[in-house]
Amino acid sequence: MTDYKNEDALVLFSGGQDSTTCLFWAKQTFRNVEALCFSYGQRHSLEVEVARNIAEIAGVSFQLLDASVISHLSPNSLTDASIVMDEEQPAGSYPNTFVPGRNMLFITFAAAVAYAKNIKHLVTGVSEADYSGYPDCRDTFIHSLNATINLAMDKHFVIHTPLMHRDKAKVWALADDLGVFDIVKNET
Known about the structure:
By secondary structure, the chain is an alpha/beta fold. The chain has one domain: HUPs (Rossmann fold). It contains six helices and five strands; from the N terminus they run βαβαβαβαβαα. Strand 1 (4-12), helix 1 (17-29) and strand 2 form a beta-alpha-beta unit. Helix 1 runs parallel beside helix 2. The model has no long low-confidence stretch (mean pLDDT 89).
């Protein structure tokens, strides 16, 4: 495993179980960690306050970025209260919680923020083992976006996805290994 103890990281941070586990993974992996949260018109605005609180518990700086343009791109149940969240995933399609381009935009925004701060490591909690099968959570997408961002910004970023091949049980096990099981359980 590569030693990153002399390098900094920016964590894409929602305050949920996955991103909280990633935040503490990053704290153990990097010298300095910053949390970047997005306000994108999500129905659960409490998310932002939870994220801010967890960042404080973790002792990391917290930045909130307005990404509200995402709520105008495509109808979905995460940003539109008139759309009832799917109980089950419709056959042959994505659940209505899928926001096309969301992770692509979040990671691109994070890279722009990291560029300005001279941070080369980005950490995100995407997982292709996730039940949803969202296309922007796949390993091939992340590798492709990493290459594209590096070309677009003429900088060498590394996108870390510590949860990529972990199911929920393995994510909980990682939180436990990191000593933050109770924080993830009680604060997210």
